[in-house]
Amino acid sequence: MLKDLKGSPLSGISNTELDDTPYGPNCSGKPLPYDPNGVDPEDIHQIPKSGGLFALVEEYSPSILLMKKDGTVFARYVPKSIASMLKKADMKVYGEIPDVFKNRRKNRGFEGLVVSKDGSYLIAILQSPMGDRNIPEYDQNRVIRAVVFEIKLTGKPDEPAKLKFKKTFAFEGSPVSTYFTSAVVPADLKYSAAQYYDDHSFIALERASGQVKWFNINWEMATDLSETKYANNLKLEFESAGTKSLEDLGVMPAMKTKVLDTYASAMGGTDNFEGSAKQEGFATKGSKFLYSSQDNDFGLENNPEVMISFFELGRNLGGPTVCSRPEAPKPPNKKTEGGLKFVFKDQIVLSKKFDEAKVEIIALDENSNTLYSANAADGRIDAYRRKPLKKKPLVSFSAGDDTGINSVDVCNYIGDTSGFIAAAVEDKTGGPGFLLILKPKFENGKLEGLKKYRKFKPDNCFLPDAVHWSPDCSYVSIACEGEGADVPGGVLVWNALTDSVKVATFDAFDEKKLRSELKKQGVRLWQNPSMPSMVLEPEYITYTMDSQYAIVGLQENNAFAVVDLAEAKVTEIKPLIFTPRYVKGYGIDASDDDGEINIRRYPKVYGMCQPDTIQLFESGGVEYIAVACEGDAWGEEYDEIRAGDIESDLGRNLAPELKGLIRDDKKLGRLEVSYPDGYNKETNTQEALFHFGARSFQIYKLDGTCVVDSGDGVKKLIAILSTHFTRVRTRTPWRMSLTPDPTRRGQSQSRSM
For the residues of 327-358, what is the DSSP string, one character each? Predict the structure, then answer.
């Protein structure tokens, strides 16, 4: 029982007219008088190394209470102007909380509390955004404020601890579009509990109707609002208005990383998590286990019985996570057959010059029957009529001098952005690239032009590659490849609902522990092992069906990343398998110098998938990611060499099983491999070979499990169809031919599918 310094029980009656009006039983009759000793307690934590002291937060004033283990509240900390209203309280009252917190909405005071592991500080977190909901700007804001106090142990019997103000900071609640109940508005977002994680971060529970989320919130670099113009007013809430980010206003928020969502399909969730509306407590065990419980308010609102839910997380509570490398599945046992037939229909000739790259990516607007091509060489987007196919562009749009359009995509979702075009534009002078959003202009069903709708050029999206709309067209993402150890990779995310752009970086993975885990799980970082953020290179993008996450291929690194779109944050890196060439069904034609197709198995040889295109699909209610294992190297300076040159050029020893094979150009000598992979530095021995591109396609579950590797099936299919595919130049433009080409006897280079 909570009691005051006189030993009398504290009431649950509100303190002042700033709180809810108190009534008697059944909320009827005359209002009761306010009580300066009343509290509405929420989160509570013991203060370590204090001899049994506790801290708890409550909603009325709002306030922070310090309590002895017998329940005696010996100190109460409230907003400055509230302290004088509680002069008759039978406990010590200090007006040390910044006065802005008195503006909390009624019954939405402090509900989350963090106490550090060493008992040196605590953090009190507001339940919801502040501001008058009758004013639209306040009604739509998602700003959650928190206050930090140092804990000072005094050793005095009557007041064994005191609090000293340290700072205030803020972060943003989730966009309501990430809650899949239409009734959810920003005011419904509630932060109801928190737990210390480490000296710079804590885990917080965010909830709304039907859905609960947990975030790791890192407050180390967050702006101290007490030193800004937003210290003791609600201008931050008003100016953000749910449309501008805190960073847009010059405020660095505490950084959020989602660790669990009871809805997200990527986490096996549901849109009707029982008890979600009142999940108000949780505990953690280690870094991957979480227990949660709900408040049923004594059943007054027909809430379900109290229950505890147990979660085993696929990612680390600490935030960004490196997942374990999966094992290769058993190779397919179905017979390879040549059952495909391609019928040539028509073509558009963009260039007749040999090896001139004009277009790699095209996109189809299904609603207007229009094809858009990314003309990288000329820095423009060309639009063509699809049926009947028009050989000349209907209209074109130039991105400007010294630019290249590397990729284009169209929103085919029926909504406000239907038909809008997104383009990834490279700055050929070496600067950061940018995102273009174009709006097509139609007159009487005829395309008349392309108009620039938005242009976003952040300072850290270098060499933008693939661009894609999310399934519901609420996001556009660009793979900012970087491609070089001197500029970082990242993923540009445009939130079409809030019209805001952020680049999800890999900076978090530069931390020593995560860096070590990347190396341990086989994620390739050879260009710059000490700074993964500079060498993790996004190549292609796909999305989960619910448009909550982007799955991003990291080609050179042989992995893919998971990006939380609402937070524009990289949450996981998932390594891909190494295909074992010594297993039946996983053979390889390793030489282009033996004059024949020779698919066979080799000991201690592995294929690295290194995918280019990746695509998510659904089958039987389960989401899968299909990847095309093309392969790519950083070059001779960092990782590329012919296997036959390892002894002579690098002076290395060879594993006994590999010696004869590597010295023979008709076997492994011509195969291009990665010389850092499989190398034992201590013995100066190349113990295994890892070659670029698995020459197959693979299929993964969202948890990273590889369920299919086509192995050598594709090569065997090609062998059935023809000796080799070749390109034949005739008087007519380029066409595919099945004519054998004696000059190309195999694929030993670093590129395949």
Answer: PPPPPP-SPP----------------STT---
The two three-digit tokens of residue 234, written as one number: 């609600």
Cα separation of 279 and 404, whole Å?
A: 50
Residue 567 DSSP code: T
pLDDT over threshold 60, residue 14? yes
Phi, psi of 477 (to 5 degrees): -125, 145
Query: What is the rounded distance in angstroms from the CA atom of residue 546 to the CA atom of residue 236?
Result: 31
What pLDDT score was predicted for residue 356? 63
Q: Are strands 689-692 and 605-608 parallel, antiparallel or unpaired?
A: parallel
* Torsional sign, CA 310, 116, 151, 191: negative
Element (H, E) at 715: helix 713-721
Q: Which of 686, 561, 690 is nearest to 614 (CA)?
A: 561
Task: Answer for the pair 50, 161: CB distance below 8 angstroms, yes or no.
Answer: yes
**What is the distance between the alpha carbons of residues 174 and 185, in angstroms, rounded to a whole number?**
11
- For residue 84, what are its two tokens? 């004088």
* Amino acid making up residue 410: V
CA distance 564 to 546: 12
Nearest to 321 by CA among 260, 391, 384: 260
**How far lies 179's CA from each of 127, 189, 255, 303, 442, in Å?**
17, 10, 20, 20, 35
Tokens standing for 96? 């040390």
pLDDT at 735 > cutoff 80: no
Contacts of 118 (CB under 8 A, 6+ apart): 48, 49
SS3 125: strand
Report pLDDT digits (tens) over 446-467: 899 999 999 999 999 999 999 9
Residue type, 580: P
**Residue 231 clears pLDDT 50, i.e. is over it:** yes
Give the Cα separation of 660 and 210 in Å (integer): 63
Q: Are 683 and 653 in contact (CB under 8 A)?
A: yes
Instruction: Kindly give, in sequence order, each residue whose CB lies less than 8 Å from that of residue 20, ignoring residues fewer than 6 positions away.
Output: 14, 106, 107
DSSP H/E element including 563:
strand 559-564
pLDDT at 203 over 90: yes
Residue 64 — very low, low, confident or very high, per pLDDT cuts 50/70/90?
A: very high
With beta carbons less than 8 A apart as the criterion, state whether 701 and 620 touch: no
Distance CA 372, CA 164 (A): 61
Nearest to 205 by CA among 149, 151, 259: 259
Task: Answer yes or no: is pLDDT of 439 > 50.
Answer: yes
- SS3 string of 281-324? EEEEECCCEEEEEECCHHHCCCCCCCCEEEEECCCCCCCCEECC
Asked if 421 and 362 count as a contact pair (C-beta separation under 8 A), the reply is no
Amino acid identity of residue 393, one-letter, is P
